[in-house]
Amino acid sequence: MALVSIPSLWAPIVLAAALVFLASAAIHMFLGYHANDFRAVPDEDGVMAALRPFGLTPGDYLFPFASGADTRASEGFRAKAEQGPVGYMTVLPPSTFFNMAPQFIQWFAYCLVDRRRLRLAVAGLSASARL
């Protein structure tokens, strides 16, 4: 069996990544799988106004937060958790909400290097080229 050089595979690899990217985008946009993933908080304006003075930097937050097992086992932490609310919160920079380009670039790069999907797509393209 003749070996195929890596440069000759770049076109099918990029084409396969583009097809996976476009298919995943279409599925996400048109089928609405994630339409019900999030809900609005009551009094959204009030919640946002209450959070602004804290100057939260972009990142993931957990509340109540326990820095270790000792804190988690304390009565004070247990009381806070039972009183609620308990939650996870991701804070994004305001500029990222309307600029999805970095996320799309990262997703396309992932599609480009994801070996499982890539192997299937390239095998399909190779099989169709032989027909």
Helix content: 55-70%
Low-confidence stretches: none
Largest sheet: 2 strands, antiparallel
The tally of helices reads 6
SS-derived structural category: mainly alpha
How many β-strand stretches?
2
- Integer average pLDDT: 83
Q: Strand order across the biggest sheet?
A: 1-2
Strand content: 5-15%
Helix and strand element order: HHEHHEHH
N-end to C-end Cα span: 18 Å
State the shape.
elongated
Describe this structure in words.
The structure is a single chain. With 131 residues, this protein is mainly alpha-helical. It has a domain at 7-31 and 95-131. The chain has helices at 6-31, 44-51, 69-73, 75-83, 101-113, 115-130, and strands at 59-63, 87-91. A two-stranded antiparallel sheet has the order 1-2. Helix 1 crosses helix 5 and helix 1 crosses helix 6. The protein is elongated. The two termini are 18 Å apart.
List the helices and strands and how they pair.
Blueprint: H1 6-31, H2 44-51, E1 59-63, H3 69-73, H4 75-83, E2 87-91, H5 101-113, H6 115-130
Antiparallel strand pairs: 1-2
Helix pairs in contact: 1-5, 1-6
Short description:
The protein has 131 residues and is mainly alpha-helical.
Keywords:
single chain, 131 residues, mainly alpha, two-stranded antiparallel sheet, 2 strands, elongated
